[in-house]
């Protein structure tokens, strides 16, 4: 059966209706964004680049358990855990994340990994400028993902706060690095005890 042919009235009205849509749009508020000159403000819970967080004394929250990697639907996370030792400690507990990588060529920023993390070591920031020109540069390593040092923190490795255990860190009982932690780190890096003490006096 053949299709009914368009009437003469339709032939005239259809293009006019189409131009009507164009005409209405000409008077609507423009949505053009002047990015990157004007940065877009994201919603507070926006899913951006990940961050590996620290405890208030600078020790790392990641325990290298790999739960984030198992939860990831895009297979974008690679973790290798290792044991802490008394000489080289990165987190308050038994294990820490020795290798940590997120491949942003795969990541879909869904947030399942941060839901899976038992220690709140992994969270997401509001940073969204992740585009790059090579695949290698889209693989973020632990150095790039680890949070910076805030006031009261000392960079790892260093000892656990004296008299505290891992649970105390999660109870919020450790609020800053123990006195002398900077000196301890300097000595472990080969500086003499006397020089480290002098440096600490100058910094104080
Ligand atoms: S945000 Fe989603 S896709 Fe990206 S690493 Fe986490 S779980 Fe994987
Ligand atoms: S980020 Fe969290 S879930 Fe992932 S390895 Fe570290 S502690 Fe485990």
TrEMBL record:
EC number(s) recorded for this UniProt protein: 7.1.1.-
InterPro entries: 4Fe4S_Fe-S-bd (IPR017896), 4Fe4S_Fe_S_CS (IPR017900), NADH_quinone_OxRdtase_chainI (IPR010226)
Region listing for Disordered, in residue ranges: 181-204
Keywords: 4Fe-4S, Cell membrane, Iron, Iron-sulfur, Membrane, Metal-binding, NAD, Oxidoreductase, Quinone, Translocase, Ubiquinone
Record-level Gene Ontology MF annotations: NADH dehydrogenase (quinone) (non-electrogenic) activity
Co-factor: note: Binds 2 [4Fe-4S] clusters per subunit.
Pfam family, one: Fer4_7
Family that this chain belongs to: Belongs to the complex I 23 kDa subunit family.
Protein name: NADH-quinone oxidoreductase subunit I
